[in-house]
Amino acid sequence: MKRNNNCTVIFQAVETRAKHERREKQQKANLSLSVKEVWKECTGISASGLDRMEWTSNFAHHIKALECDDSWNLEFDDKIDPKNPDPGWRTFMWCSSAWFKCSGCKRSWPSNNVMVAFHMRLMDKEGTVKVKRFRQSCKICSNAPMETPDISPENIDILMEKLVQHIEAKCYGKVVNFGSGRSAPLKVRNKHEPEHCEGCKAGVCRRGGI
């Protein structure tokens, strides 16, 4: 009987330890989630939805500084052609820095050659900005899809500042001091590869840099 009791105690101790290890493993897994994944878990809003909120709220902040009576809206549109805007639309392009993540192998890589195109129009006191973020594909995976860049809030802020300056100049005819502000660069070890860059294929990328 004593031996059975000892076995029971040992079994309970092992089971308790196993539960503790499983709990620790789950906690570590939770901690490994990215901020955007945690946000999705808590709110149900996807990473793309959170990204869209970052862009639109930042744009609203900068456009408010114009103190104009017109309403402005920003939307993403991957179909716009930066070289051939529709009649009545003005264009602006900027080279930013961002991270990419392959949806296949999950590899991540930084780039300082991330082109962003804007088309803007003001009509009947309603302004619209269309945004196209040029993508890149994984150089390791075969037939890898083009991935959307993950641009930091800091660089989104720089993009929106430059965008609103161009709206002032092109839609309101104001004289604007554009300054020399540049996107915050990332540490990149590999050279830019045009065959994996959507901007290069479209002929709008700042080729050859890193």
TrEMBL record:
Domain 3CxxC-type: 95-203
Keyword annotations: Membrane, Metal-binding, Transmembrane, Transmembrane helix, Zinc, Zinc-finger
Compartments reported by the entry: Membrane
One Gene Ontology CC term in the entry: membrane
Gene Ontology molecular-function annotations: olfactory receptor binding; zinc ion binding
Record's keyword annotation contains Metal-binding: yes
Protein topology in the membrane: Single-pass membrane protein
Protein name as it appears in the record: 3CxxC-type domain-containing protein
Gene: LOC101063606
